[in-house]
Structures are given as structure tokens and as C-alpha cells.
Amino acid sequence: MEIRQEALEYVKNSQEELIQLIRQLCAIPSFSHHEQKKAKFIQRWFAKEGIEVTIDAMNNVILPVETEDKKELVVFAAHTDTVFPDETGFECREEEGWLMAPGVGDDTANLAELMLIARYVAQHGLHCEKGCLFVFNSCEEGLGNLDGIRYLFESYAGRIDEFYSFDGGYHGVVNKAVGSSRYEVTVKTEGGHSYGAFGNRNAIAYASGLIGALYQYKVPTRGKSTYNVGVIDGGTSVNTIAQNARFLFEYRSDDRQDLEEMKEFFMKQLDAWRAMGIEVELKVLGERPCMGPVSEARMEKIYTHVCDVIRQFTGTDPDQHSGSTDCNIPFSLGIAGCCFGGYLGQGAHTREEKIEIASLLTGMQIVTWFILDFFQPDKAAH
């Protein structure tokens, strides 16, 4: 208990440093598959504290704790990428009790908190019953396709026993995976001049018809299932019959059988258009797995414990819900864990995102208390 009380004092005294670290991280461009600069910053930050971390081939920054002689590992992770494709970083503004910047919450606040907590563990020589990995991982957002965590599980195959992602706020806990499939669909026709070749098939018209057919689908209802066309483009000019049209399509569900049924419908629609002599090309952009054979009893135990910790600091219980997070990979492999975060905010995935400055203290207390449950205070070095 003494170690945790000391840690909470550390959290309280670290709030100004936390805010400054969030500002520094926001200023570094870091969209999916382009996290090198942020990974290097994190590595240098730890090096200044006398702590050695490694950067793997996917730009995951990893701080191992007592992993050499232990088969089972627990992972604490926060992702370094943001959803925004900007090649310059963002200025983090403070206004009326808020920190405001694209990506300031998702997932910069959690990333900064986990860095400070990992530093505390490393500098205080805390011992973990299992081996532990603090991971600041790449490629969680969008077409990152969870590639950072996929690579982590390949690198530590068969060793990771629990996985916790710190993403989002402490108002909710993700303990069920939303799987998804994302595609680029390209429709091609002969096209031609809008006057001289009038009557030739128009790729935009056929792509629009295909989209219309996809939107006639009634989703299965075992879980929550959705679909979406998010981008469409094509054609050459106003007086050209389009030869090419392209759109991005995804479907997602938190039920494995629903995903399979949605895929079957999607593929049948593509085949129907091909049967009309239309060339339809399909490119898979990303696939996120759904739930695997995770122990329900173990998941319930974890959720109950997380609720206890959050209630201790807030007086309220968090919601539990499904989501698409880094936890999809361990969940699909039957590995238990969950996802929650260390702040309260608004506007995630918009350029108006903001977080409550006052919530950072409570959030970091929650995350610190939860993580220290995995360590052994009686063996700590003083």
C-alpha cells in the first residue's frame, strides 16, 4: 500500500509535466505508418531519464520489465499514431480548462500518462509477478490496421497472457472487439467522349448503382453491425464518360457470424456487377478480427476490477461496450484484457478535439493504481 500511495503523490506532482509532455507529443506529426519521429522522441525522452527502450521494425517503442526469465507477460499499451494525415504537428491550446488539439485525447493524453507511469516503475525498481512490457505502439488508427500490435504478438508469440490498451476515457471500458473489413472498390468501363461516344457505359454510374445496392442491405442483428461508404472519386472531366470510379467501403460487427454474412452479401453484389460485363477490382485495405475464444469468467473478473478502481476515484461505474481497438488482436487470439483511458474529453477524431485538464489527475490516478496491481510492493527497491 505504501508504494501505491507514493505513486499517487508522484502522479499529483507530475501534472504540469504531464501537460507539457502532451503539448510536445501533439507537436509531432504521427499518422499511421509514419510514427518514426514520435518513436524517436519517446526513446530520447526515456534516455534522458537513464532508461533504455527499444524501437522495433514497426516503430513500436518497448520498455521491458523483468521479461528475461518469465514466460508469461502482461502488456500495457498506448498508441502513438493519430487519425489525422497532416505532415506537420499540432499546437495544443489551453482555453477555459480545456486542452485543445487534434489527437490531444486519442491517444496523446494516454500516451503521455503511460510514459510517466513507466518511468516511475523503472526508476523505483518495482517487481512484476509476470514479465511486463510497456508498449507505445504504432498503427492503431484507420488503415494502420493494428499492424503495430500484430507485430508485437508475432515478436512475443505464445508469451503474452494479458493485454491492456489505454485509449479513450475512463467513462467507459471496451471489453468486446468490433471486427471490420475495409476495401477499395474500383469500377472500370470503356468510357469515351460525352457527345461522340454517348451511350458507352459510365463507370461513375455503375459504381453509384453498386453503392445503392449495398445500401439496400439489412444488417444481421446478433450483435451490432454497420457498413459505410466513406470516399468516392473518379472520372476525368465534365465532358468525358468516366472510365474509372473508386470508392472505399467497410463493414463491421461485434459478432463473428454477422461479419461472415456481411462479407457474403458484399461479394455477391460484386459478382452481380461483373456478370453485367463490368470490370470490378477489389483491394483489401484492412481487416480487424472479432472476438476469439476468450474466457468469459476471466473477462468478467477483469471488468469488475477495472470498475472497482474507477469507482474508487470517481464514485461512478464506467459503461462497458464493444469497440475497435488494439485489443482486437489479443481478443481474437483468446487473450484477456480490456481498453480504457485516463481522461475525459470531447470530439475524438475531429479537429476540434479537447480534453478536460482537471480530468487528467483523476485519470492518471486510475491508470497508475490499476497498473501497480501487477507489481509487488514488498519487493520494491527503496
Structure write-up:
Helix 6 packs antiparallel against helix 7 (256-275). A hairpin with a 5-residue loop joins strand 1 and strand 2 (61-65). It is elongated and about 80 Å long. The strands form six sheets. A six-stranded mixed beta sheet has the order 1-2-7-3-8-17, sandwiched between helices. A four-stranded antiparallel beta sheet has the order 4-5-19-18. A four-stranded antiparallel beta sheet has the order 12-14-10-15, with helices on one face. It is of the alpha+beta class. The protein starts with a helix and ends in a 6-residue tail after the last strand. It folds into two domains: 2-178 and 290-379, Zn peptidases (Aminopeptidase); 179-288, Alpha-Beta Plaits. 36% of the residues lie in helices and 27% in strands.
Summarize, please.
This protein has 382 residues and is an alpha+beta fold. It has helices at residues 2-13, 15-26, 36-48, 104-123, 147-155, 203-214, 256-275, 296-314, 328-332, 357-372, and strands spanning 54-55, 61-65, 73-79, 93-95, 98-100, 127-128, 131-137, 160-166, 172-177, 179-188, 192-193, 225-234, 240-241, 244-253, 279-288, 319-323, 336-340, 345-346, 354-356, 375-376.
Gyration radius, to the nearest Å? 23 Å
Order of helices and strands: HHHEEEEEHEEHEEEEHEEEHEHEHEEEHE
The CATH topology of the largest domain turns out to be: Aminopeptidase
- What is the tally of beta strands? 20
Distance between the termini: 14 Å
In helices, the fraction of residues equals 25-40%
- CATH 4th-level superfamily of the largest domain: Zn peptidases
Number of domains: 2
- Order of strands side by side in the largest beta sheet? 1-2-7-3-8-17
CATH class of the largest domain: Alpha Beta
> What percentage of amino acids are in beta strands?
25-35%
**Shape-level CATH architecture of the largest domain:** 3-Layer(aba) Sandwich
Overall spatial form? elongated
Number of helices: 10
Low-confidence stretches: 378-382
